[in-house]
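tool_call predict_complex ligand=zinc ion
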Amino acid sequence: MSATGRERVPIESGYFSVPESDAEAPLLFGSRCKKCQETFFPRREVCASCLHRETTDVSIGPRGTLYTWTYLYVPLFNSQRADDGGYAVGQVDLPEGPRIQAVLRGGPDDFAIGMEMQLELETLRQDDEGRDVVVYRFRPRSEGGSE
Ligand SMILES: [Zn+2]
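tool_result ok
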């Protein structure tokens, strides 16, 4: 349940968790190789590093470090934000190992390489059953603030 009181569902299952409360951070669903311990996102059955065929499901996140980013001055195709003049895309290094590409929340002046990032969910739209359809994003992590 989100602050809106609506149930939340992921845009696609198997990639990230949707906590009951939006005060709780989501986690990404990854895999860890049982042989070399390399961690991957999204999940995979065969290790991309050593080709071992046994992996364990692991939850990764919700924090990372911004490796690089760019800002695109075009609206995000699936956004409902009225003020949408663009969006940022970045690569975030997770402490568990993977570097993942994701849409970032914030304006063109909000990012710096090396800054701490926080995983969160954004509502894209409501589905036919009135549920919030959510996707994961990263935003700059601030102490004590929500933005
Ligand atoms: Zn491996």
